[in-house]
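Lab channel / #folding
Pinned by the channel admin:
"Please post every new chain as: sequence first, then the C-alpha cells as a reply. Keep commentary short and put observations after the output so the thread stays searchable."

First post following the new format, from NK:
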Amino acid sequence: MSYIRQFYNQFRSYFSANFPRIFSIFNRYKSVIKFIVAGCFSGGTDLLLLFFFHGLFGLDIVWSTSLAFILAFLVSFTLQKFWTFRNYSQSKAFHQLFLYILNAALGLYLNGLLMHILVNKYAIWYILSQIIVNLSLAILNFVVYKFIIFKIGHHETDSQ
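Reply from TO:
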C-alpha cells in the first residue's frame, strides 16, 4: 500500500505544480469527481462481469445479470464508502450497507416512477427521459451518501 500512497503523492505534487488552476478545481470538487469515477468503475465492473458470466462461461442471462449486479453493487458500496467519502468506520459498515440497499431500492422505484411520468405524461423521448432521471438520481444519491449514509461524525476520524 505504501507504493500506491507514494505514487499518489508524487502524482499530486506534479499535478499541483504544473497545473495549479486545474488542480485547484479538482481539489475543491474531489468528492464529486470521485463519486463519478466510482460510479463509472462499478458500472464497468457490472458490464465486464456480465460478459464473463454470460459471454465466456455461458451462464443463463438472468443468473449472469444478477451475479454481475450483486458484485458490482458491492464494488460500488466499497468505493463510495472508503474512497469517495473516506468513511473508514468498520462498526457501522453493516448499517451503512443496509441503508445503501434501501437507497438503491428507492432509486429503482423513483426511476420507474419518473420514467413513467416523463414518457407517458409529458411525451419526452425515453432516452432523454432516462438521462434526466439518471442525472437526478445521481445528484440525490450523492447527497444521501455524503450527508446520511457515509456521514462522518465528530467522534470519527477522517484520515486522508
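NK: The chain has a mean pLDDT of 92.
TO: also worth noting, The two ends are 14 Å apart (CA to CA).
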